[in-house]
Design a protein that fits this description.
Elements: E1 26-32, H1 35-51, E2 55-60, H2 62-72, E3 80-83, H3 84-87, H4 91-106, E4 114-118, H5 127-143, E5 149-156, H6 162-171, E6 174-176, E7 182-183, E8 211-215, H7 219-232, H8 237-257, E9 262-269, E10 272-279, H9 303-311, E11 314-320, E12 323-331
């Protein structure tokens, strides 16, 4: 492949060899304060990847896609572009999409490595969503630890809240700020017991009386209850089926590991339907990233919560002595209303 050049490029990291075994995960935050700063890192990142015959994916804003296409010129035809609004819908969905992308492009030696520009969507998120997306960025370090992937996550420091930018420094081992990458001195490795990624469940203000039921071994009765209660709250069709499946998966786990019984509480809270599945079992100190890591195909357990995170907009897990609660969040369509 013919080498490409750019004008005064600023490499996003120190040069890395293109021969030998594929390197494993590199996860960097690009902190940029303007179009020039964005392009000076992302353009050489893409061109160097194409020269190395890596697969290159750019998931960013519509404005940045236009800038990057123009700067890359003819090379843009070899880069896959996706608008971030379509990609960063829920943490579970996004992790699944990235895993499928990596598998698709590295299976059977098709590409030695994938390069990703991945700019999460932060605007319009509430506090809970912002916290979960920050945890998502930390989980990437575990979920793709063994993958031949180089991921650069742009953060626009002109518009993002300082707590989001501070989160980038904690969740990315390396930072790019207009010069070769450097180690982030604020990086917090996503250890299983890392307290900063734990968040106790908060009370949920309910719009109306919650629907509550106890469950035991007859999960068909629970599925019927969730279908009826969800419909009364404005959840229908495919979204209702996703909720029923998610509740069934969590309840099944409760029956197997949580004492054989439990309780489901379903309510509407603003633009969401929130469902708690609680059981009397002990899950002492659960890893905060439960369900963020895709289970191996030969793994007997661990598939359920991964699937649940794919189905729901947000998932929280809380465990105290004598009680474990998995909280499922589904965003309602803007036109939905109870009874419609």
């Amino acid at each position: 492949m013919t080498a490409r050049t750019t004008t005064d490029p600023v490499d996003p990291a120190a040069p890395r060899p293109h021969t030998g075994p594929a390197p494993l995960l590199t996860h960097q935050a690009l902190l940029y304060d303007g179009d020039e700063a964005f392009l000076s890192s992302t353009v050489p990142f893409c061109l160097d990847g194409l020269d190395a015959e890596d697969a290159v994916l750019a998931v960013t804003t519509g404005a940045n896609i236009a800038l990057l296409r123009q700067a890359l010129d003819d090379a843009a035809r070899e880069v896959e572009f996706v608008d971030a609004k379509d990609w960063y819908r829920t943490p579970g969905h996004t992790l699944g999409e990235y895993h499928r992308y990596v598998d698709r492009h590295t299976a059977h030696g098709r590409h030695r490595r994938v390069r990703v520009i991945g700019e999460p969507v932060w605007h319009g998120r509430d506090a809970l969503e912002t916290f979960e997306w920050t945890r998502y960025e930390s989980a990437v370090n575990l979920a793709f630890a063994g993958c031949p992937a180089w991921v650069v996550c742009p953060y626009d420091t002109r518009t993002l809240p300082e707590d989001v930018v501070a989160g980038a420094r904690r969740t990315h081992p390396e930072l790019v700020e207009g010069e070769p990458a450097r180690t982030s001195e604020h990086y917090a490795a996503p250890a299983a017991r890392h307290d900063s990624w734990r968040r106790p469940l908060e009370p949920v203000p309910a719009d109306g009386e919650p629907a509550v039921t106890d469950f035991g071994t007859d999960l068909s009765a629970l599925r019927a209850f969730v279908t009826r209660a969800a419909g009364a709250l404005g959840v229908h069709g495919e979204q209702a089926r996703r909720l029923v499946f998610a509740v069934n998966e969590v309840a099944t786990n409760a029956l197997q590991h949580g004492g054989g019984r439990g309780q489901v509480t379903l309510r509407r809270s603003g633009h969401r339907v929130v469902c708690d599945v609680t059981d009397p079992g002990d899950l002492p100190g659960p890893d905060w990233y439960l369900g963020y890591l895709p289970p191996d195909a030969g793994q007997r357990d661990g598939h359920g919560l991964w699937a649940v995170r794919q189905l729901c907009d947000l998932v929280e897990v809380d465990a105290v002595p004598g009680r474990t609660t998995v909280r499922l969040h589904l965003d309602l369509p803007p036109s939905s209303a109870p009874g419609r």
